[in-house]
Amino acid sequence: MKHPQAWYKQFWPWFLIILPLCAVAASINLLYLAIVNQDALVSEDYYKDGKRINMDLKKIKHAQQLGMQFQLEVNDNQLTITQHGGDAYLAALHVEFFHPTIEARDFKQIVTADGDSAYRIALAKPITGAWEVRIEGYDQSWRIQKRLQITDDTEYWLN
Q1: Which residues contact 74 (CB under 8 A, 6 or more apart)?
Q2: I need a surface site. Which of 2, 20, 32, 123 has the fewest CB within 10 A?
Q3: Higher confidence at residue 142 or residue 2?
Q4: Taking the alpha carbons of 39, 135, 139, 142 in that order, is the dihedral positive or negative?
Q5: Are the CB atoms for 93 and 127 separated by under 8 Å?
Q6: 137 φψ region: left (φ > 0), alpha (ψ -120 to 50), beta (else)
């Protein structure tokens, strides 16, 4: 007489147990990703945000009136910004880089011109991909803002 195998030695019970376990593991993984990569909070004061946007537009128009134009060079781990239009501006610049999807990659820096009238920023690692670049005068009276698709060793014009 043949004895039936114990349940744990058969294929089908393990197959039926593995399917829900995979679903549980995937759910835990997705929960972890959702907690680690939280979205930025939505603003609660839309009126103030609207006023701020209008101020930003005035700064951009003022930069256009002044004829401000900058060249941005990306070489390995260094950004070089040189002015090519408008009145010579040798004061410090507020330079900001915003990544469209990963807020942790955003960076901003106040830079001063060197002896060649160029503004240089040393980067911890090379930057590539889509970036929102904002250059603003130290007195915050004008602003240039542009979305760039940055690749290695390339020049870009901001005006």
Answers
A1: 126, 127, 150, 151, 152, 153, 154, 155, 156
A2: 2
A3: 142
A4: negative
A5: no
A6: beta
